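Hey,
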Amino acid sequence: MSSAEANPLANLEQWDDFVKDRYDPGKPKESFRHYDEKTPPVVREFYRLNHQNQTREFVLQKKNEYTGKRRGPMGIWEAMEYLNTLVDDSDPDTNLSQIEHNLQAAEAIRRDGHPRWFVLTGLIHDLGKLLCLYGEPQWAVVGDTFPVGCAYSDKIVFPEFFEKNPDFHNSTYQTKLGVYEEGCGLSNVDLSWGHDEYLYHVMKDYLPEPALYMIRYHSFYSAHREGDYQYLMNDHDREMFAWVRTFNPYDLYSKGDERVDTAKLRPYYEDLIAEYIPAKIDW
């Protein structure tokens, strides 16, 4: 498969925009299917590749590859500047950099008076998209996340595309619980691989637990927006998902075209980063 075939989106923001529109709080849930039928072809192709290729074997392989954090040390602001190189000039809708988008989310959280660790989470939550710069295809970086190793929920966007996934034909994986036990807790469940899971493993030694839930599960829409997969959760997951739902509107709706003064804000955020995270961490 060529790079263009493996990466149908012009840029990762096309997926962000799709999710923002699909989960608009003013949109009735019954309209989701109708909306999905009008999805741009490149976004449909992205989801087709994601659902076809995110097997349990693939997820475990990527966890083994990346969770050992062998990409070398890097500071947070350095990582943000590196992610800036991902900006695609073909995006006609915004001239804002990745750093500016991240600052917009963080500033919205800050204005609403949330804890400092929450503000920091808004700043860094998408840094796992560095996976694109490591050579991973778009379908292994972004996309609604979902459990692998058990039956797929019909609440996942475009569930029909799972029919091409080899796991769909594995009877062990297509029962309600699959390889898991009821109430086992999400820490014991493998979700599809992407920027959420990668950044969780990078940050798990540094941030409070609610922040880690926000990072790890902010793309798990079938659970935190649709309420599915409750049978895999334990009571602690349900408690922590209140934080994920609080974070979700900032993730989806805080970004706009108005520029932020990065130079003016940088000292504040460098101090905030230093409060929680060492100057260099392993990626």
